[in-house]
Amino acid sequence: MHARVVALQADIDRLAAARTYLGHLLACAHGHDLERCPDFRATVPLDTP
């Protein structure tokens, strides 16, 4: 049971990071060049899959 909870939490964390990325992508003035956006770089690690 514990392993399943850990796996679900990993999925939740991954999806939350994706939601943050996509939300910023929609609103950011830098468009698709998010690596130049200081707000994005501070919010989402660039090594996020």
Summarize the topology.
Layout: H1 2-27, H2 38-43
Strand content: under 5%
Unreliable stretches covering 5 or more consecutive residues: none
Distance, first to last CA: 26 Å
- Following the backbone from N to C, one meets helices and strands in this order, namely HH
Q: What does the overall shape look like?
A: elongated
Instruction: Please summarize the sheet with the most strands.
Output: none
Question: What would you note in describing this structure?
Answer:
This protein has one domain. The model has no long low-confidence stretch (mean pLDDT 84). It has two helices and no strands. The protein is mostly helical. The protein has helices spanning 2-27, 38-43. It comes from Streptomyces alboflavus. This is MerR family transcriptional regulator.
